[in-house]
């Protein structure tokens, strides 16, 4: 099965590549890092809109 690496868009082959769907171990680790940083951002509270609305009434 042919596929493209989600990191660098290089063609990769599931039968030949142990790091599939990534083209290499480097891209696999990059994706793990991106996922971890995204999770860190989501864990922070987002309350800017509510705070702005309350201060507007004053
Ligand atoms: Zn890649």
Low-confidence runs of at least 5 consecutive residues? none
The amount of helix comes to: 40-55%
Let me know the average pLDDT.
80
Going by helix content, strand content and strand pairing, the class is mainly alpha
One letter per element, helices H and strands E, the order comes to EEHH
Widest beta sheet: strand line-up = 1-2
The biggest beta sheet is recorded as:
2 strands, antiparallel
CATH class placement: Alpha Beta
**Attached small molecules:** zinc ion
CATH third-level topology: Erythroid Transcription Factor GATA-1, Chain A
- CATH 2nd-level architecture: 2-Layer Sandwich
Hey, roughly how much beta strand do the residues contain?
Answer: 5-15%
Structural account:
With 58 residues, this protein is mostly helical. The chain has a single domain (2-56), classed as Erythroid Transcription Factor GATA-1, Chain A (2-Layer Sandwich). The protein contains 2 helices and 2 strands; from the N terminus they run ββαα. It has helices spanning 25-42, 48-56; strands spanning 2-4, 11-13. Strands 1-2 form a two-stranded antiparallel ribbon. The protein is rod-shaped. It starts with a strand and ends with a helix.
